[in-house]
Design a protein that fits this description.
35% of the residues lie in helices and 27% in strands. By secondary structure, the chain is α+β, with helices and mostly antiparallel strands. The protein starts with a strand and ends with a strand. The chain has one domain: Phosphoribosylformylglycinamidine synthase subunit PurS (Mth169, Chain: A, 2-Layer Sandwich). The radius of gyration is 16 Å and the shape is elongated. The longest helix is centred in the middle third of the chain and has 15 residues. It comes from Nocardioides perillae.
C-alpha cells in the first residue's frame, strides 16, 4: 500500500474568506508577521500496490473529478513516502478553466 496526499487550494485569483478570517485573528492572538493566509483541503489516500506513475495519474484524475473544483481550485498530488516518490515520481495537477 502507498499513501498519497492531495492538497487542494483556492486559485490565487479566488477570494478566500476563511483565510482572511484566520489572518485577521492571528494578530489578536499575539501572532505577527503573517502577510497572507490561504485555507485549503488535504486528502490522504491509501492506495493498493505501489505508487507507480500510472497510479498517481489515476489519483490526479480523482482529484480533478471529485476532490477539487477545477473552476476555483488547484491541486497537487504527492506521495508521503519519499523513497516511493523518488521511484514513481510526483504528479502535480493545476487545472485551468
Amino acid at each position: 500500500m502507498a499513501r498519497v496526499v492531495v492538497d487542494v487550494m483556492p486559485k490565487p485569483e479566488i477570494l478566500d474568506p476563511q483565510g482572511k478570517a484566520v489572518q485577521g485573528a492571528l494578530p489578536r492572538l499575539g501572532f505577527s508577521g503573517v502577510t497572507e493566509v490561504r485555507q485549503g483541503k488535504r486528502f490522504e489516500l491509501e492506495v493498493e500496490g505501489e505508487a507507480t506513475p500510472e497510479r498517481l495519474e489515476e489519483v490526479r484524475r480523482m482529484a480533478e473529478v471529485l476532490l477539487s473544483n477545477p473552476v476555483i481550485e488547484d491541486f497537487e498530488v504527492h506521495v508521503v513516502d519519499h523513497t516511493v516518490a523518488e521511484a514513481a515520481g510526483t504528479v502535480t495537477g493545476q487545472v485551468t478553466a
